[in-house]
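Why DUF3757 domain-containing protein? Reviewers of the renewal asked for a concrete example.
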Amino acid sequence: MKYKLPFLMLFTSFNTLAQLHCPPVDTIKQTGAVYSAPAAGNEEWIGMLQGTLPPNSSVKNFSEALIIIDSDKNNIVGQGEFQKCTYNLQAQGRQIDMFYGNKTWSVSISGQPLWVYQQNPFLEIYQCSGVAAEECKFDILAPG
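Here is what the prediction returned.
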């Protein structure tokens, strides 16, 4: 059994471990200030609301997903470090950031046209917004 994953990875482009997307709004569960959603494999989407918990703190809708490009590395177009999926809450002006496995991941968005490249003096990013959360797809890349 333990040899199946490495064997399957031989047939996967870009050493992709899994294709994921931000969790759909209706899959996000709230327990106090902690938000969670199921994900592929052994990981989970998790977010923690900072500050005082507002009276109506349920998730309203999807805002954006963000990938940061590491300009210090010899970057391949369409790759970067996946940061977060951000959701608007019912409470006016409040948002929750959700993280896959509570860490950053090297990802590829090759062939995913909804991600928009943006550059400012400090960062280069890819942003996915204005669509349903599950439309912001990305591939987790194998380390190394």
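The radius of gyration is 16 Å. This is the kind of structural detail the renewal will allow us to pursue systematically.
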